[in-house]
Amino acid sequence: MNKEDLMEHLIKGSYIKSLSVEKAFMQVDRENFVPEDEKGMAYYDIPLSIPGAQTISAPSIVAEMLEAADLKRGMKVLEIGSGSGYNAALIAEIVGEDNVISIERVPELVAFAKMNLEKAGYQNVRVVHGDGSRGYPEEAPYDRIICTAAAPKIPRAWKEQLKPSGVIVAPIGGRHFYQELVVTKRDGKGGFREVSLGGCVFVPLIGEDAWPEY
Ligand code: SAM
C-alpha cells in the first residue's frame, strides 16, 4: 500500500467525506510520524507501534474522528494524546497551526511528537506535557476537544473548557475492551447531547479523571 492506495481506501470506504479532511490527509505524510522500522507499513490502514508502548491509530478511525469533529479554519482545538503528532498535524492542516494544542502524558512521546512535527515542517503546533483528563485550562475555551485515548466517561473539565456550541470527540468505554466513539455537543444553553458513532478500540486514557495507572 502506498499513500495513493490508502487515500482511495479511505475515500471509497467513506471514512473521508469532506474536502478539508481529504486535503489534510493528502498533505501530511504518515511515514514521517512512525519509527524507522515501521515506515514500510505507514500507508496500511492499521495502528502501528510508537515509543512508550503506545500506538499511532489506524488512518480510518483518525479520518472518522476528524469528520465527526467538523473542523473549520480558525477553530481552537485541544487534542488529548499527542502520540506521534500525526493527528495534530492533520488538525493543523484544517484549523491552522496556531490553533492546535496537543497534550500528552508520556514525556518520551512529547519529545517524539515534537520531533516529528518539526521535521514535517510544523513549527507552531504546541505539544505540552500533562494529564489531558483535566483538559488544558491554560488555553481554554476550545471549539473542539478531540481525545485519542479511551476514557471511562467524559471528564468534567472537558465540558467546562468547551465553548458554547463546541464539540468533544472521544472513545468512551472499557479500559481494554469495548469502547464507543462518542460525539458530545454543547448547546447554547450549556446542555450537552451525546451521540455514539459505534464501536472502536483505543489505548486507555490514564489520569486523574480517567483510568488509574494501576
Ligand atoms: N493521536 C496520536 C497520534 O496521532 O499518533 C495517537 C494517540 S495514542 C492512540 C493515545 C495517546 O494518549 C498515547 O500517546 C498515550 O500516552 C496518551 N495518553 C493516555 N492518557 C493520557 C492523558 N491522561 N493525557 C494525555 N495523553 C494521554
Provide an overview of this structure.
This protein has 214 residues and is of the alpha/beta class. It has a domain at 61-200: Vaccinia Virus protein VP39 (Rossmann fold). It contains six helices and nine strands. The strands form two sheets. A seven-stranded mixed β-sheet has the order 5-4-3-6-7-8-9. The protein has a two-stranded antiparallel sheet with strand order 1-2. A hairpin with a 5-residue loop joins strand 8 (179-186) and strand 9 (192-200). Helix 2 crosses helix 4. The mean pLDDT is 97. It binds S-adenosylmethionine. S-adenosylmethionine binds next to strand 2, helix 4 and strand 4.
Strand content: 25-35%
Q: SSE string, helix = H, strand = E?
A: HHEEHEHEHEEHEEE
- Number of beta-strand segments: 9
**What name does the CATH topology of the domain at 61-200 carry?**
Rossmann fold
- In CATH, what is the homologous superfamily of the domain at 61-200? Vaccinia Virus protein VP39
Bound molecules: S-adenosylmethionine
Number of helices: 6
What gap, in angstroms, lies between the N and C termini?
38 Å
Radius of gyration: 16 Å
Keywords:
single chain, 214 residues, alpha/beta, Rossmann fold, seven-stranded mixed beta sheet, 9 strands, binds S-adenosylmethionine
Task: Map the helices and strands.
Layout: H1 3-12, H2 19-27, E1 48-50, E2 54-56, H3 59-69, E3 77-80, H4 86-95, E4 100-104, H5 107-119, E5 126-129, E6 142-147, H6 156-160, E7 162-173, E8 179-186, E9 192-200
Parallel strand pairs: 3-4, 3-6, 4-5, 6-7
Antiparallel strand pairs: 1-2, 7-8, 8-9
Helix pairs in contact: 2-4
